[in-house]
Amino acid sequence: MSSDPAVRCSDVTLSYRRHPAVHHLSGSFAAGSFTAIAGPNGAGKSTLLKGIVGLIRPDAGTIALEGVRRSDIAYLPQQSALDRGFPMRVVELAAMGLWRRFGPFRRMGGAAMRDVEAALETVGLSGFEDRSVGSLSGGQFQRALFARLLLQDSRLILLDEPFTAIDARTTEVLLDLVCRWHREGRTVIAVLHDFDLVREYIPQTLLLAREQVAWGPTETVLTEENLARSRRMQEAFEDDAELCKRPAA
Amino acid sequence: MSVYDLLIAPFADFGFMRRALVGCVALSLSGAPIGVFLILRRMSLMGDVMAHAILPGAAIGFLLSGFSLFAMTTGGVIAGLLVALGAGAIARSTPLKEDASFAAFYLVSLGLGVLIVSMKGSNIDLLHVLFGNVLALDDAALILIASIATITLLALALVYRLLVAECFDPGFLKSVGGSGGLVHFLFLTLVVLNLVGGFNALGTLMVVGLIILPAASSSFWGETILGQIVAAAVIGILSSFVGLVLSYQADLPSSPAIILTAGAIHAGSILAGPRGSYLARAFRPRHLRG
Prior knowledge:
Chain A: It comes from Kaistia hirudinis. Chain A: Pfam families: ABC_tran. The structure holds 2 protein chains of 2 kinds. Chain A is α/β, with parallel strands linked by helices. Chain A is 35% helix and 24% strand. Chain A has 9 helices and 9 strands. A 6-stranded mixed β-sheet of chain A has the order 5-6-7-3-8-9, sandwiched between helices. A 3-stranded antiparallel β-sheet of chain A has the order 2-1-4, with helices on one face. Chain B is mainly α. Chain B has one domain (3-288): ABC transporter involved in vitamin B12 uptake, BtuC (Orthogonal Bundle). Chain B is built from 13 helices and no strands. Chain B has helices spanning 3-13, 15-40, 44-65, 69-93, 98-120, 123-131, 139-168, 170-175, 180-202, 207-218, 225-249, 254-272, 278-282. The longest helix of chain B has 30 residues, at 139-168. The model of chain B has no long low-confidence stretch (mean pLDDT 87). At the A-B interface, α5 of A face α7, α8 and α11 of B.
């Protein structure tokens, strides 16, 4: 068993569509930590996740992984990045999570299919195996993607807005699953919008507005002062910036 | 006129009709998965672009050695791949969007192709290249079409999982270390091969119809990719058969007859296919849609 994975960023600058989106970020996601990445829209949160998983190369600086290979990271993309009407069965979507074991060519046998069924049961999609992905609601689609994450069985899990546009019951089930991963010692990094949810469940927070605003224990990061500062910094980058919803006092 | 006279006799009596049908069936079989994946990758217009792109290559082959199957095929494949690579490279290295880059390439290709064919041949030759001559398929052309169909189906079966992953979630494939670029290029190569195989039968412009129309119709019939591929193949074969019969009985040019039949089936699918058509939606309770 390898040591728990950590992610170390040193002076990282990342661009999205040729525009710099994250500037000079330095710091570490510690092994076994559970960190929320929060900040205004366009703050570079998703870009940072893409940088860690290797979909974008840093323009400057390095993102070093310890205790995990880049190809072993489990990454949940934003739901809006995927075609929800794709003609694929639920079981096929979840089974993509076994890629590391079976790759593109090897045949998945009965044992693998039982693993897939177990993962679907964990996310509450038993009986949906043969349904087409297009027939799922937003919440059910997200559950299927979480079944894929489960099957990837990764020590480092990156989630991009896992609970956006999802019904409350699904959020509860999936959040429970994420907290379980944290208890199992996996390193979890999640981009999140809902400050209340972050305050209640997530120990560490990185507040981002193109640059690091604050990074550390959630209660010391998500202060009114820091949030106001993050909004000012973001507006300085783009005049027509949309604001995240104002956090409850 | 009996059913036999109407539907069977043309094929029983004439070898060229049988050859035309065999060629179109082979094209339909390999064109079906190609078309379905083109549509899933939102590249349905790319088929058209590539079809135009192979024209100057085929024309140069024609210029050098007349109606030589080998020369025209090789020229077509080379030109098609050059345009695919060139347009892709320009889109990546300049601010020009990929569709605009492809459009520029294929418009130039079309002009170049027509110019080259006109330099040597007559208008009849040009029409043959543009619209094909399915009723004059010789052994070599049939073997070429059948070989391309075989290669296509085998290659797609081999990379099926990769291709599906690349279509649905390219980020996932990249994150697990799969090479999306390689899959994409292999797929484009298969597209070019099928277009080249088809242009002897249906012509460079019409062959796209037999690839895209059945695939576009298939999403109204099949719920999974495999289901859609099977539906597209059946629709392609049916269009070929009905189109050839129409062409024979009503003395119509065969390529347009086949494509228009596929178009009629497409219209029927939009109106009354079992999935997502106007009819299906009218009879389905609203709450079942997410």
